[in-house]
Amino acid sequence: MNREVYVGGLGAITAMGVGKAAQLNGLIAGETALGPLTLFDTSHDVIVGEVKYSNRELAVMAGLNREIEYSRTTLLGLLAAAEALEDSGVNIKGLRVGFISATSVGGMDISENFYRHYNKDKNRGRLRQLVGHDCGASTQFIAERLRTGSFVTTINTACSSANNAIMMGARMIKAGLLDAVIAGGTDSLCRFTINGFSSLGILDREQCRPFDATRSGLNLGEGAGYLFLHSARVKTHRQYCTVAGYANANDAFHQTASSADGAGSYLAMSGALNMSGLRVKDIGYINVHGTGTPNNDASEGVAMNRLFAGNTPPFSSTKGFTGHTLGAAGGVESLFAILSLTQGYLWPNLNFRESICEVPGMVPITKTTKKEGITSVLTNSFGFGGNCSSIIFKQDKIGQL
Predict the structure, then answer these.
(1) pLDDT tens for each residue of 200-220
(2) Which of 58, 113, 159, 302 is deepest in the core (most CB within 10 A)?
(3) Whether 159 is catalytic
(4) What is the pLDDT of residues 277-300, one digit of tens each?
(5) Catalytic (active site) residue 324
(6) Is 230 annotated as catalytic?
(7) Cα–Cα distance for residue pair 398/343, rounded to 1 Å
(8) Which residues of 279-314 are buried (b: 16+ CB within 10 A; e: fewer)?
């Protein structure tokens, strides 16, 4: 029995725009979508990757009643997940289709609106703003809207969340439990994350510079990215690639920091490689986690240098385009990796000038580059607590956008 897992649909929304085509165009152009925060007031002077639409505008785009207050996480997720399903061209009636969604902030953005009023007067504040607070609320709403109720669950493992959602979906298809899964993640900007990351001292006031010697922090972003995963039984309009290998590991080092030797990163990447049956030289491109923080990039760089024995494949962090979309990062960046595979491009690592001292001479791709013969790509998403996840996508029957 064929237990391959195929990617038959893509959907995304980020600071670069709405839809997978907007992501492709933005990446090819090689221009950042980062800018000053305008969605809400904050005392912090930050650069972010925000989607340039209000919640009401997003609701209209999603075909919802704009007078009802939905969390921004829900709206972003619905638009991206619906696109992934539509892109597949599959009529899911009669199929066992699941929805596995990742998020870290849930409905925090509208919960904050409630407490701004409630803290001033305990008789004020609209309680309905708290209905969507739980991380699972957005998942449940989107699943009901898309009628993908055969299996529904939410994953929150910080920044590795969406990669773990994709891995779980692939495992369920391989086990014969589901015919197809829409898997990925969604997260929105809110005061909670701005304040939280500021308190950790890892926000860069300028545009982030992943894998650069002068890096000093990350830029937060928002968005959503989902893949339509399916078994051989399900016929889609196109097959972008297969999910060839994946692994999750933990270096058990610190609550937020990664270990200096990159143990978790190495185990995740090597585990995915072993599962895929590929060799290190088969990897044509790596979409690295690359947040731009001193700790993350050093740890990931050391791990890559170890795995690839000093001959690391072309790699880049795409967070200079969108910012770090937290729980959605794995979904968004898996889509970027798949676009690299299917369209034959290497995406640039924006703002890079000088290699990091921990791995001298490790230089990412700095310009959008056309490359023939890419047959497999690796994408990394590493979260707080040392939760590290890597996925390898392999060329199959390539569809066109």
Answers:
(1) 999 999 999 999 999 999 999
(2) 159
(3) yes
(4) 999 999 999 999 999 999 999 999
(5) yes
(6) no
(7) 9
(8) eeebbbbbbbbbbbbbebbbbbbbbbbbbbeeebbb
Tell me which of 135, 230, 324, 388 is the catalytic residue.
324
pLDDT in tens, 18-62: 999 999 999 999 999 999 999 999 989 999 999 999 999 999 999
Burial 9-45 (b: 16+ CB within 10 A, else e): bbbbbbbbbbbbebbbebbeeeebbbeebebeeeeee
Q: How long is the chain?
A: 401
Q: pLDDT digit string (tens) for 312-369? A: 999 999 999 999 999 999 999 999 999 999 999 999 999 999 999 999 999 999 999 9
Which entry of 135, 208, 241, 289 is annotated as an active-site residue?
289
Name the catalytic one among 135, 159, 241, 388.
159
Q: What domains can you pick out in the chain, each with its CATH number?
A: 6-230 (3.40.47.10), 243-395 (3.40.47.10)
